Amino acid sequence: MKSPIFILAGMLSLMLAGCVSVPTGPTVMALPGSGKTFDQFRYDDAECRHYAQSQIGGTDANQAATDAGVRSAVVGTAVGAAAGAVMGGHEGAGVGAGTGLLVGSMAGTSAAQSSAYGAQRNYDNAYIQCMYARGEQVPVPASMSRSRQAPAAPAGTYYPPPPPPGYVPPPPQPGYPSR
To answer: In which domain of life is the source organism classified (predicted)?
Structure first.
């Protein structure tokens, strides 16, 4: 028979890991490319979602978060139980397991959130690359979307550069006074 502390530990870790949830698709907007029909866009979207999913190992961000949270809670419980048993015997193992579960679950929530957002970021990057390669419109950083222009000339009077050394000016045209 399983100890009630381990059943409670498993339930609590699943509940805490479940607090972290992220979208199951891309979090970036893509628009149909020039000259593309909406059906072509939908096909590209489905293909790129599949491609992005394969790039992050076939798991979604929520599953990555849950796995990370549960692993941290289980490790925390085991370490806490071992430390409690060493320090306080049989009763200390239960207290250590409870403390380890609590600390491991808190660390697991942080690990789950970090894992989920990392997986989502990688998914979005792969999705954007795929949609761009298929000719769809995808978001770009503002610094890349501004057109590059030559700097404007400073306002004021313009003075031409001096002639090169040894330059002899041409004779004046007929009808113009010489200087």
So the answer is: Bacteria
